[in-house]
Fold this protein.
Amino acid sequence: MQKINVAFRSKVRYMSRGDILFNIFNYSFMIMLCIVMLYPMLNTLAISLNDANDTIKGGIYLWPREFTLYNYQYVLKENTLLNALFISVLRTVLGTAISVFCTAMVAYVISRKEFIFRKFVTIAFVLTMYFNGGLIPTYLLMRDLGLIGTFWVYIIPGIIGVFNLIVIRSFIEGLPNSLVESARIDGAGEFTIFFKIILPLSLPVLATVSLFVAVYQWNSWFDVFLYNSSNPNLSTLQYELMKILQNTNATMSGKTAADAFANASGQSNAVTPASIRATMTIIASLPIILVYPFLQKYFIKGLTLGGVKGE
């Protein structure tokens, strides 16, 4: 401990005034940046844990003024939420696994220079990022494929993500080509090379893409509205939360802010669109927040290594 203190003092002693000013500015800027990034989530959490009528008065910042769990009780009391949660989890897990696996296979194919149609296939995929058939033709296509009213309408249309395809392809192209050539000399086929060499080395970028796909699958609700709104057994958590918010807005539409403020001291078990919106945000964000720390190291590594080309 004494050696560390001596080393620290000697380091500070030889720092110039410019270095000290830079460190002060750098630390101050990073602290302010952390505050700016964390405040919206902490404020949303405080509103979700605060009495709805009291929230109307304003002045809720980092902690609730009148603590209550009624907002969460109101949202979670719906009988359909448990099944919707199961569908959301199943959709996120299956959709992420299938999409990442299929995208990685296509990315490996178009990353091989010996594949003569690699440029044509790449351009065909990239064009879909700029042009699409539109909402009505897409709906008609899903209907003709027999996907309306089924669970697979959440999975099949998003099997290949073009942006994720480009990211994985760039990463694979950065891997040493000598590994693939050595495997081919030893008699390994393309599937063996893909499963035994490419996939293990591509874990960082696969984890990064998995996070992208999982967030999309978890937060998606518009496709439920389009294709499965008449089937409550296939409803997702996000769609059910959206319906709760709509019902709350419809209930409160006949009340003015003045009426709600006048009743603030009376009814304690009440909800408002603002309180429900904050509660829904916390519920919807919590799973991603819990998963992200386990993927953070792969996420950062995948983004930094994705653009590095191998020799």
Summary: The chain has one domain: 70-311. The longest helix spans residues 273-305. The chain is about 70% helix and 0% strand. Residues 32 and 68 are 30 Å apart (CA to CA).
